[in-house]
Every structure is written in C-alpha cells, then in structure tokens.
C-alpha cells in the first residue's frame, strides 16, 4: 500500500494568493481534506503534487512515511569481451533508470560511484561503496559476456555494509546478444531488486503499455515497454482503433474498432480483441449500434462495455467470448467507461450523463445499487480507473473554469488528491500493477502524448513524442 | 480633325510600303534562256510548289499540305517532316502558327517554296445547360442538424433542417442515407462515442416521426474522431456538434 503524508504547511497552502483567484471554489475543500488527513491517520494519507511553478506553495514529504529509503548503487557492469562493452553499458543504464523511477529507493548518483567495475562479489571494494559520497547500503553489479551468438549476464545485489553476508540476489541471464534482450534482462533484474526492497511489491520494469497512436495516419493500437522503449503497432486496420484494455493475464487486448455490424453497410464502433500470443485479431460477435470502451472483469471471464445495441448507449456485460450479452443500466443518457474494482470484481465505476453532464457513478457488477459519486464541485468527471488494491479511484476532472486534471479519490472516505495542475489537459489515467505508478495522456507539450508518473504526481516522464498518442493502458503484469 | 488627316496619310504610306515590299519579294523572272545547243543541254532547274488548305486552323484542327515539283531528285519538307516524294499531300495539326518550307534539289540546282499555317486558340466551349447531379441536389437540400453542448435534443433550427431533409427523402423514396453523429473535442473519447450515438439516433428518430421509414436510415457515431473543424473555439465546437448525412450506397 502507498503511504503518503500530508503537508504540515496546510494552512499556508490554501492562503496562496495565486490559488485564491483561480482555485477559489476548491480552497475550502482542499483545506478540509488536509484537516481530515492531519487529524485521522487514515489508511491513506496523501501528498500533494506540485509543478515547479507552484513549488513555494506545495511541498512533498516523500513516500514511505517515517521510513528512510534504502540507498542503492549500481556499478558499471564489467564487459568480458569487446562486443559486450555496449551491452554492459546499456544493462547498467536500464537498471539505474528502472530503480530511479520505482520511487521506493534512493539511487546513488552515478557521479558518486567509485572507480571500480566489480564483475564478481570477490572484486567488490565494499568500503569504497559504503563510504561517502556513494554512501550505499546495497550495490548492484556484475559482468556481461557476449559474442556474435550469445549473451550471458551475471548480476548480483550485495549488502555493502555487511561484507560477510551472502549476496541478496545472484542471477545469471542467458540469451541472444541483442539490444532488446539486454533491456528485457535489465528490467527483470531491476524488478528482482524492487521486489526485495519493497517487501514483495510487483516490479513493473517488465510491464508494457498499450496506447492509441495516429502516427501512421490512422488511429491504431500500439504497445511499448513501460519506459517508452520498443514502440510498435499491433494493428493496421486503417480505420479508427480506440480504448485498448489488457486482459488480466496480459494475453489479449480488447479495444474499440470500426467494423461491419450485424446488418448495415457502414462500419460502426465494435469490440475487437487482439491476441498478443498469436499476434492477430480473435473473432468476436458484432452488435448493432455503437459498441466501445471494453473493460475486463478481474478474473478475465467477462467483458463490460458500452453498447447502443438496443437504442440508448448503456452498459452491457458478456462472457469473454462475447456470448450472452446482459444489459446492466437503464437510463436516459449515455453510460460508458466502466472499470472494475480489481480486488473484488464486484464493484464497477463508470461515467454517465443521466444527471445532465458526465459524472462518476458506481454500481455492483450485476447492475444493482447504482449511485452517483458526489464530488464537492460540479464539472465533468471522466476516465475512472480503479487502483490494483481496490481502494483508490483515479479519474480526470474538469472543475468549473478549470482544465482537465487528474485526481485520486479514496473510495471509502472520498478524500481527494490532485495529481496534475496547470499543465495542459491531463486525462485517461491507468494504474501500473504495483499501484504506485500511473500512465496518462497530457497535452502539456502542445500535442497529446503519453506520460507516466508516480501515483503522488511526481516524477513525470514523457513516453511518446511522435504523432498524437492517447488512451494508455498499463499491462497487469 | 488633325488626327484623322494624319492617320489617313500614315495609312496611305503603309499601303505604299507594303506594295513595294511585295514587289521586292518577288523573284526576278529569269530571262528566257537562249536555245541551248543540243549537244550540251544543261540540266533543268527544279521547280516546287507548296500549298496548305486551309491556311487558318483552330488549335486541334488539321490542315493539308499539297506539293508538286519538277526536275527534282530530292524533296525535303520542314520543319519536322523530312524527305518526301516528288508530289504528295500530308495532313498536319500544328499547335502554333508554323511556316512550312519545301526544298527541291536536282541536277539543275535547288528551289524552295513556303507556306504559313496560322493557328488560333479556340474559345472556351459555351457552358452547357447544367443538369445538377443527385449528389448536388442532396448537398443542397440535406443540411446538418446541430446540437447543444453535451445534448442530443433536437433544437428548433435542427427541426427545420431535418424537415427539409425529410421532404427531400420523400422525393427519392429509394434513397437510403447514413446518419453520422459527431461531437466537439471536449470530454473523453469514450463519452463522445456515446453522445454521438445519441445524436445520430435523435436525428434518425425525428426523420422517422416525419414518416421516413427507419430501414432507410443507418446510424453511426464518430464521437470526436472525425471533426469538421479543428480550432478550440466555441464557433468550431458548434460546427462539430452535428448530425451529418451521407447518401447510402
């Protein structure tokens, strides 16, 4: 679980003059949240995100309340041959980036590294790494050998303050001497380290992100590694492909495509399923009307989606094969963007404009107990995404006179945290399986691009640059 | 008065010069040759004649060159034609005014003849009486129905547009149409797909209420994926909040 702490400077926060004008309606609200957070030791305490421009008003106290983060160094890896040299550099760089972005540890800046590249535990100068300025507690190191056909990477993590202890991690990776393979091994090794240091949190370095890109001229489904590398298209449908969603086992991607309906001549929005295992589309039933925004149940056995097969755009649920569609909502308005509570599979959050404008609603997965989620301000609420632990909802909210910004709401208490501000439109959050990272789309650079960040709003990384990119969805594993 | 006198004098002068010029161009008539001694008769000088009919054509039309010659062993027609027979005809379509020259060569020397073919550019064809196509009639009579922000209700201006559309569809009872629902860029991709669906359905329902059979009307939602206008202004947003009609195939 994420532990965030609230700022002790809460009274100053809400008195900021720049905020008072633009964010007047929010002031009281934010203040009350802070009071709540400071009074209650909730399961969730939050930190507020700040853009650099607002740094004097908001400050971050860091993740891991009261716990200092482990300080980890990553040595350059020792190349055992000439062809191994660039691969060794790349391996260490990818591991460093992964560890840095994990947010759970304190990475030793590379410039503080002692001038040694130990290839085995016996070669480590423990004192050099534990002394200032490196001041490391743990050290990742190892050796890379490669020839034209094969690659072998030995990688260790050692406690440098207790030289007598055996390695915390010792791994050997063997494969093809390619760039892609080296990156994949580096992500695996980083995930091992993150798993050890976080007490079993799943590492996300080996995960992928599906998204929509128009860079070929049409909107198609693409995937990339979680760090933005290895971007490639999955579909070449030459129509409009939208809203990709990974199945819970990451073997399939459901998305909105334009395809021939049951009857009629014009292509309409339909649900398509791409199999990552067989690299092709799986046949799936076509329905009348507009069909979009599929969401998998956490056990992968069902899909919920928006369909106007009976007239109005309502939510339906079918088997994963598309069989036995069952209507869940009956309203005078549009109902879409369902997201399951991944922990229970029993609750669903969705968007409906039955009250006049798009707002957030919840219901049971069988359609019962539909209720509006009341937020302090009016304004659009779209793109709900349920966190992996089931306790938080991320969404995009356009408050009156504001822009679309990302928020997190704790389900039980309705406490809110604002994650983005004054940086273009920010929409479509999707959680990483570790529950600590969020990928989203933002127009802050002037074009719509995919970004990732820690779930407290810090460490934003731009992942795409080419064309317009939207609707990211983080793979569950 | 002065001008007129002056012009007349100038004109007379020009005529005189032209006549003189024509006289000068005339080849001197060769003096009658003395009767040659039968033993050493010199080769006869070649003669050649070239005519074009007609000499004025419009671009794209053709003219026929006709030539004849005497005492020539070789005839060359230029430009661009080359060796030709002692007499013959050839049809040509020069795109611009061209002077054709034929040169006859024989034992007695050479001679040539020229003819100029003038080419005029034809005036553009007179506009034919335009018969509007079905597509043009459709575009004229079938107008988009516009919607309010976040709404799928038929406004009064949309009512008028849809009534005219229904009238048109009644005149073409076989015609099927596709009703497209579109949205402005605000709101999510997913919400706009739903809203566009509701707009297309509302426009279809209104046409059905005016007596158009539902099976002539297919609907499709493009959400905000096919905007008509890409600026982030209210004027542009209004352009994009529409039901748009396309003739079915």
Describe this structure in words.
The complex is a heterodimer of chains A (477) and B (249). By secondary structure, chain A is α+β, with helices and mostly antiparallel strands. Chain A has two domains: 70-197, Rossmann fold; 208-474, Neuraminidase (6 Propeller), CATH 2.120.10. Chain A contains six helices and 30 strands. Chain A has helices at 10-15, 17-22, 24-39, 84-102, 126-130, 179-197, and strands at residues 70-74, 78-79, 105-107, 138-146, 151-159, 169-175, 208-213, 220-225, 232-233, 242-246, 252-259, 268-275, 280-282, 291-296, 302-307, 314-319, 326-327, 335-340, 347-352, 359-364, 371-372, 380-386, 392-398, 404-410, 416-418, 426-431, 437-442, 449-454, 461-462, 469-474. In chain A, the strands form seven sheets. In chain A, strands 1, 2, 3, 4, 5 and 6 form a six-stranded mixed β-sheet that branches. The longest helix of chain A is centred in the first third of the chain and has 19 residues, at 84-102. Chain A is globular, with a radius of gyration of 24 Å. The two termini of chain A are 18 Å apart. By secondary structure, chain B is α+β, with helices and mostly antiparallel strands. Chain B folds into two domains: 45-121, Immunoglobulins (Immunoglobulin-like, Sandwich), CATH 2.60.40.10; 134-247, OmpA-like domain (60s Ribosomal Protein L30, Chain: A). Helices cover 31% and strands 29% of the residues of chain B. Chain B contains five helices and twelve strands. Chain B has helices spanning 2-25, 134-141, 156-171, 189-209, 234-240, and strands at residues 47-53, 56-58, 63-70, 74-78, 82-84, 88-92, 98-106, 109-120, 145-146, 177-182, 217-223, 242-247. In chain B, the strands form three sheets. Chain B has a five-stranded mixed β-sheet, with no helix packed on it. A four-stranded mixed β-sheet of chain B has the order 9-12-10-11. In chain B, helix 4 links the parallel strand 10 and strand 11 (217-223). The longest helix of chain B has 24 residues, at 2-25. Chain B is rod-shaped and about 110 Å long. The two termini of chain B are 74 Å apart. Mean pLDDT of chain B is 84; it is low at 19-24.
